[in-house]
């Protein structure tokens, strides 16, 4: 057993209202630069919908993640080492800007310079790729809230997997939002695809980063990541990705997306896991067993033998303590309400989701039933095949049983708490019906509904002698930091104007004696 | 004049190349990239780029054989001059045409696809001019001397001269009788070598052969200094 710590995030999808505040603040902090106009380290997509980039979940087409060979070994779906090297001169499975969207700006100058005219002047959209007028046809959330209807949403690769009869009804049935960041996987296929070895997983906290000085722009990681959460900066020629806001979490602050989340639906905490067990778990034979397999690599931070092993592995006391208080551990293991996104990609993702019960409640209400009554809810979870089947394709490789179990727990929590809210005595049988105690039910309710900042984000600070420089990074301009994906202020040969002496490009000048 | 062309210039360009690469690696690893334009346009690139690069690898292999291995060595292992010549003409012409055609496809793409053109710097344009000139002159020399003409044995002149450069005893007289076409090719090649470190061509030195033996997932410490634990 080799204990490693991993920063994990859990998102409660019932609370997401699709306001995109996380996306916008993330963009302002990290990708507000030329070259990554189209990059959204955090995006919020409407399900059903095509996602971003379009149809990224169709791995037959994009070849992301791992596949298990007949001999039970894993290799990247797009091909092993030799095949990657042979296709290095033109990556055959790279999405182009058409699959994302063509970034644009507006001709604002025209608003000011337009001569007096009959009509109000209009700022035309200008493509940032060609510098010419363009027609906007797609963007990061073009199909927001089912915009475009059947025509667009029918391109959803997940919807294509549920049967045709239910597909026709989906529009009346349900819709929800899915915020996505990099999964910071335990078994990252992006890192496995990188010929240069520039993508690495940090030993201390499991954050997956790209070394900007080692990246040579081969673009294999973009293909390797099944979530398409690596973006190629077309100005610098380097790949960039979500950093889990490492300059912030290193001093104990939550990521920008979590900090600014209006619905307070994100939780950040540590998970201890057995690094030696990852490879075997990821190579589990059946896709539907991968959810259980991933849970089996997590280690109970309260178990004395795990604590001892963690100490031996050099994990500090305050980190072990944080792992014991981790909301991620509670939601994933203790209450069993969080599920991984697409475990069938075999990357062991570490951003988990509590599936939304709201579509079920809404469907009940629309049919004139009491959407909060336990019997109705339980019946509806089973009767409403559409949301369950769809959610199962997202979170459990198509196995409806774990999704149903989670939805029943959430339904039970609603019914249990409603009685208390109405002044009735708590009904323990409700909790027992889903295998929980009333006490657990209340604790879960507190965590999901009213948990404070310190309970939602349990992030131990990094142990480093350079804490003050970290502080500067988190509060200063994040783009200037060495090793950050931005380094927008840094000059290289391609961006040098040829006159001044940018720092880092030349040897330091000797002081005149 | 001959001294400048066949002794001073080669050494100057080799020196510029070596120092330039060292400087670039030390101070501009952030700028060390292929700076791919595949994101803008993929369909043409998928034809042109492999054609150019694989062709170029063959061409380089041919140059290494022809220039660095002395004629007496190949004759010693029983390859007659005629056999060698046939092989060189065939492989050289095929790979040369492949490379030049690939470059033509890539250059057309670069000029005609607007986002790609917009991402092309002056530096790139300059580099492409030198690169295209070198390749075109090289192919011309091969085709003209060996297929149309009655063949020119550069292994008697250019090859020993180049080896003499590396042995630090430049024998400039060897180059005096070389056809102008081939002389021009040699000169542009040295020009290419000199600008190499300052262009995107540096990505040639990133051939990721280490990938073949490395474990799939790389682990690193936060300070970035520690090696992988796994």
Automatic annotation (TrEMBL), chain A:
Chain ranges of the 4Fe-4S ferredoxin-type domain: 7-35, 173-205, 206-235
GO cellular component: cell envelope; membrane; nitrate reductase complex
SUPFAM superfamilies: 4Fe-4S ferredoxins
Domain of life: Bacteria
Broad class of the protein's primary localization: other
Cofactor names: [4Fe-4S] cluster; [3Fe-4S] cluster
Protein's UniProt keywords contain Kinase: no
Compartment annotation: Cell envelope
InterPro entries in the cross-refs: 4Fe4S_Fe-S-bd, Nitr_red_bet_C, Nitr_red_bet_C_sf, NO3_Rdtase_bsu
One GO term (biological process): nitrate metabolic process
Keywords of this entry: 4Fe-4S, Electron transport, Iron, Iron-sulfur, Metal-binding, Repeat, Transport
Pfam family name, one: Nitr_red_bet_C
One function term, GO molecular function aspect: metal ion binding
Keyword ATP-binding tagged: no
UniProt-listed NCBIfam families: narH
PANTHER family in the cross-refs: NITRATE REDUCTASE BETA SUBUNIT, RESPIRATORY NITRATE REDUCTASE 1 BETA CHAIN
Name of the protein: Nitrate reductase subunit beta
Gene source species: Rhizocola hellebori
Automatic annotation (TrEMBL), chain B:
Protein location: Cell membrane
The entry's keywords: Cell membrane, Electron transport, Heme, Iron, Membrane, Metal-binding, Nitrate assimilation, Oxidoreductase, Transmembrane, Transmembrane helix, Transport
GO CC annotation terms, alphabetical: nitrate reductase complex; plasma membrane
Binding site for heme b: 53, 63, 185, 203
Domain NarG-like positions: 2-222
Mode of membrane association: Multi-pass membrane protein
Transmembrane segments: 6-25, 45-64, 84-107, 128-145, 182-199
Family named by the database record: In the central section; belongs to the NarJ/NarW family.
PANTHER family in the record: NITRATE REDUCTASE PRIVATE CHAPERONE, REDOX ENZYME MATURATION PROTEIN REMP FAMILY (PTHR30598), RESPIRATORY NITRATE REDUCTASE 1 GAMMA CHAIN (PTHR30598:SF3)
Protein name as it appears in the record: Nitrate reductase-like protein NarX
The species this protein was found in: Rhizocola hellebori
């Amino acid at each position: 057993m080799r204990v490693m710590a991993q920063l994990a995030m859990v998102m409660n999808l019932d609370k997401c209202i699709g306001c995109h505040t996380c996306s916008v603040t993330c963009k302002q902090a990290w990708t507000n630069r030329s070259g990554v106009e189209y990059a959204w380290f955090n995006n919020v997509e409407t399900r059903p919908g095509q996602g971003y980039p379009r149809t990224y979940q169709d791995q037959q087409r994009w070849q992301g993640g791992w596949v298990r060979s007949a001999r039970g070994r894993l290799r990247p779906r797009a091909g092993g080492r030799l095949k990657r090297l042979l296709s290095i001169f033109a990556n055959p499975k790279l999405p182009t800007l058409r699959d994302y969207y063509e970034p644009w700006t507006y001709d604002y100058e025209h608003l000011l310079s337009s001569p007096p005219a009959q009509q109000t002047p209009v700022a035309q959209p200008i493509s940032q790729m060609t510098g010419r007028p363009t027609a906007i046809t797609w963007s990061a959330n073009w199909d927001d809230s089912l915009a475009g209807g059947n025509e667009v949403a029918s391109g959803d690769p997940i919807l294509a997997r549920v049967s045709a009869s239910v597909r026709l009804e989906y529009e009346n049935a349900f819709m929800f939002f899915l915020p996505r960041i990099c999964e910071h996987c335990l078994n990252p296929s992006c890192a496995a695809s990188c010929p240069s070895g520039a993508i690495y997983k940090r030993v201390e906290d499991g954050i997956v980063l790209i070394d900007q000085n080692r990246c040579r722009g081969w673009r294999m990681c973009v293909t390797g990541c099944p979530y398409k959460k690596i973006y190629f900066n077309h100005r610098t020629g380097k790949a960039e990705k979500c950093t889990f806001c490492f300059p912030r979490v290193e001093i104990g602050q939550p990521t920008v997306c979590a900090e600014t989340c209006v619905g307070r639906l994100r939780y950040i905490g540590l998970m201890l896991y057995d690094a030696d067990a990852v490879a075997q778990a990821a190579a589990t034979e059946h896709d539907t067993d991968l959810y259980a397999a991933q849970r089996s690599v997590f280690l109970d931070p309260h178990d004395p033998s795990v604590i001892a092993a963690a100490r031996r592995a050099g994990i500090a006391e305050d980190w072990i303590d944080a792992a014991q208080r981790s909301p991620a551990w509670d939601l994933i293991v203790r209450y069993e309400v969080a599920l991984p996104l697409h475990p069938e990609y075999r990357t062991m993702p570490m951003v988990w989701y509590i599936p939304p019960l709201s579509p079920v409640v809404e469907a009940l209400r629309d049919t004139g039933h009491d959407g909060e009554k336990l019997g109705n809810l339980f019946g509806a979870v089973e009767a409403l095949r559409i949301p369950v089947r769809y959610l199962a394709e997202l979170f459990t490789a198509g196995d409806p049983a774990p999704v149903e179990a989670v939805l029943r727990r959430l339904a039970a929590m609603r019914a249990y708490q409603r009685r208390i809210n109405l002044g009735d005595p708590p009904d323990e049988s409700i909790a027992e019906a889903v295998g929980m105690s009333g006490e657990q039910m209340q604790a879960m309710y507190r965590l999901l509904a009213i948990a404070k900042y310190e309970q939602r984000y349990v992030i131990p600070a990094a142990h480093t002698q350079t804490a003050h420089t970290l502080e500067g990074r988190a509060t200063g301009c994040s783009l200037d930091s060495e090793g950050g994906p931005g380094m927008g202020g840094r000059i290289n040969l391609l961006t040098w104007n040829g006159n001044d002496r940018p720092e880092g490009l030349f040897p330091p000048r000797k002081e005149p004696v | 004049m001959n001294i400048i062309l066949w002794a001073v210039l080669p050494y100057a360009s080799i020196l510029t190349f070596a120092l330039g690469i060292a400087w670039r690696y030390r101070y501009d690893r952030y700028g060390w990239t292929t700076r791919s334009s595949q994101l803008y346009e993929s369909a043409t690139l998928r034809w042109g780029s492999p054609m150019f690069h694989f062709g170029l690898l063959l061409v380089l292999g041919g140059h290494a054989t022809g220039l660095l291995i002395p004629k007496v060595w190949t004759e010693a292992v029983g390859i007659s001059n005629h056999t060698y010549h046939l092989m060189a003409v065939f492989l050289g012409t095929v790979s040369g045409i492949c490379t030049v055609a690939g470059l033509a496809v890539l250059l057309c793409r670069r000029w005609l696809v607007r986002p790609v053109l917009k991402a092309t710097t002056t530096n790139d344009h300059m580099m492409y001019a030198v690169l295209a000139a070198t390749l075109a002159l090289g192919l011309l020399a091969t085709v003209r001397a060996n297929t149309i003409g009655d063949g020119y044995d550069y292994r008697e002149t250019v090859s020993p001269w180049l080896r003499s450069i590396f042995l630090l005893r430049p024998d400039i007289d060897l180059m005096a009788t070389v056809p102008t076409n081939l002389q021009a090719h040699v000169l542009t090649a040295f020009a290419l070598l000199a600008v190499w470190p300052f262009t995107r061509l540096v990505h040639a030195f990133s051939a990721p052969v280490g990938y073949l033996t490395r474990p799939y997932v790389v682990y690193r410490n936060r300070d970035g200094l520690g090696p992988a634990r796994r």
